[in-house]
Write a structure and sequence with these properties.
Helix content: 25-40%
Strand content: 25-35%
Largest sheet: 5 strands, antiparallel
Mean pLDDT: 83
């Protein structure tokens, strides 16, 4: 093998051509010679153009019934040859209608060969109509194809028919290939299955493994490809690519590697497997090639066998995986930055508890529980502050979603409520209605829930509910769920809806707990049951202050139980 490896397709093809010419020249020295032309053997009957040479009425070099001796019956001659044909064969006569159109054929003679196990042999069909014994051919255009043989005189070659037949044991299907020729006003037809069982298994193996194989005869130039290889290169199986044509499909960067592979085979070596990229109809496909030279007794390789496996899908998967990793790294960096911004924003937005509340006889504790410990970001919020008119605003809400967008919506809703709450002589129902109108008017807004209420100087809690879970009240060791018959829809759903309020009287020693849905929503669990579990946990907090109560509640739930962010507010009445 030349130590110089071609770097482009043209140089590689020229190099291969020189190697093949030298190989053929070496092979000619020991080759036998057969003359292609010579004197006609004794007794041969020359064909006369335009005249039939057989008494059956058909002429031409492809017709094999030429005995015109005394007493010769050409049809008996044709029928006698049928048993020697290794595929299903029959002699057919046309059946014509009143207009002279061929509508069917009658089986006049046949052999004993079954094309497939579940089809009858032709010799069992003699005297019957073709569409009676092969009913599945009615929709395959077979009658028309056979009639064209009679009308044109041209033989039928490999007419493919997807043949389906309903039998007593169910439906059967196979692909049949028909060959036929005209024979004195009749048709001699043969048919066979397109693939036998072993061929079908081979095809299945090629398609499942995305592989195929090809053979290049270096002496004759003949090329044969399996259907699997033709499928990979998307070309007609009857027109496989020569080695020169194959070189033209290789990507330029891979030509040297492909050149080493081919030239090693031509030199009679077995190169190690290699991956080569080919351009197939504008698409890059990566194939793993393994080759084997067929060595003659004179030591010369006269044929090359190559097995190819298509690795394109695996290569693309690796590329997608690498791209996914890069994207994941980028998203992880963005998420880290987002968590830092959101944490800072949340600290700025969620308030510490004012000393004014303590002077008003209220003690407040709040907690935020993220669904993921490393992602303290969400749309849950609360507000508890003293208003200029002496009432205390108490609210909790949940803006849909996670991340900075949810934090932004949470800030928008909380600040909007803070501004609306300073309108004189407003009650909780009005605030809830106004906040709903703001969200409904914003096309970029999403749904949200909230409880908004006021505690007046008489310790009456007048509150409205927009699709939010009911508060819990702990009084004298008993915990109860506040009635939410007045509950209205989520924010952002129904513009113009007027939210109602209800009043709950609070007593000294009471503990009021508000929470978002992340505390009680569990996949596959009824929310009523979850609220009852929380109520029982709260019942065990009798005598504790707001902060100790929240600590006890958080200890009662494992962190992994929270599928969504959760906000808790506990308010003690003294």
């Amino acid at each position: 093998m030349s130590p110089l490896i071609p770097q482009d397709p043209e140089t590689l093809k020229q190099h291969l051509a020189r190697e093949v010419r030298a190989l053929r020249e070496a092979a000619r020295h020991g080759a036998g010679v057969r003359l292609d032309e010579g004197p006609a053997p004794a007794g041969a009957v020359p064909a006369v153009e335009g005249e039939p040479f057989c008494s059956c009425g058909t002429g031409g070099p492809e017709h094999g019934c030429g005995d015109e001796g005394e007493g010769h019956d050409p049809w008996e001659c044709v029928c006698a040859t049928l048993p020697a044909i290794p595929v299903s064969a029959a002699l057919l006569t046309p059946v014509r209608d009143e207009a002279g159109r061929t509508v069917d054929f009658t089986v006049k003679a046949g052999n004993h060969v079954r094309a497939v196990e579940w089809l009858e042999a032709p010799d069992r069909q003699i005297g019957r109509r073709l569409l009676e014994v092969q009913p599945g051919a009615a929709v395959g255009g077979l009658v028309e194809a056979l009639d064209s043989v009679l009308s044109t005189g041209r033989a039928l070659k490999g007419h493919a028919l997807d043949y389906t037949e309903q039998r007593s044991d169910g439906l059967h299907r196979t692909k049949l290939l028909y060959d036929a020729s005209s024979c004195g006003g009749k048709v001699l037809a043969t048919w066979r299955a397109a693939h036998n069982r072993m061929e079908l298994l081979s095809l299945d193996a090629q398609y499942i493994a995305s592989m195929g194989w090809g053979t290049w005869d270096l002496l004759s130039g003949e090329v044969a490809w399996s259907e699997g290889l033709s499928s990979i290169f998307r070309n007609d199986p009857s027109r496989p690519l020569s080695l020169a044509e194959l070189c033209d499909t290789v990507l330029l960067d891979d030509v040297p590697r492909f050149g080493r592979f081919l030239l090693a085979l031509v030199d009679g070596e077995e190169p190690s497997g290699t991956e080569i990229r080919f351009s197939v109809l504008g698409e890059v496909r990566t194939l793993h090639l393994v080759g084997h030279p067929v060595i003659a007794t004179d030591g010369l390789p006269w044929s090359l066998h190559v097995i190819a496996r298509d690795l394109t899908s695996q290569v693309r998967s690796r590329q997608r995986l690498a791209a996914t990793r890069r994207q994941s790294d980028r998203l992880r960096e963005e998420a880290t930055a987002e968590r830092r911004v959101a944490a800072a924003l949340r600290e700025a937005l969620l308030p510490t508890h004012s000393a004014e509340l303590a002077q008003a006889g209220l003690s407040v504790a709040a907690a935020y529980l993220p669904a993921e410990t490393d992602a303290a970001v969400g749309g849950d919020w609360y507000k508890c502050r003293l208003l200029p008119d002496g009432r205390i605003l108490l609210a909790i809400g949940d803006a849909c979603g996670h991340g900075l967008s949810a934090v932004a919506r949470m800030a928008q809703q909380r600040h909007a409520l803070a501004g609306l709450a300073h309108a004189p002589e407003t009650h909780a129902g009005q605030l809830t209605t106004w906040l709903n109108e703001l969200l409904c008017a914003d096309p970029a807004a999403e749904t949200a829930t909230a409880i908004i209420g006021h505690i007046d100087q008489e310790r009456r809690f007048r509150w409205a509910c927009a699709g939010h879970p009911a508060p819990l009240l702990l009084r004298e060791g008993a915990a109860s769920v506040l009635d939410t018959e007045h509950r209205g829809p989520l924010f952002g759903l129904l513009p113009g809806h007027e939210y109602e309020t209800t009043t709950t009287d609070l007593l000294p020693g009471d503990l009021l707990v508000l929470y978002t849905d992340g505390m009680v929503e569990r996949r596959g669990e009824d929310i009523t049951d979850s609220i009852d579990v929380l109520r029982k946990v709260l019942m065990g907090c009798s005598g504790l202050g707001p902060q100790d109560t929240l600590d006890r509640i958080m200890d009662a739930y494992a962190p992994e139980e929270h599928e969504d962010d959760t906000c808790l507010v506990a308010l003690g009445i003294s």
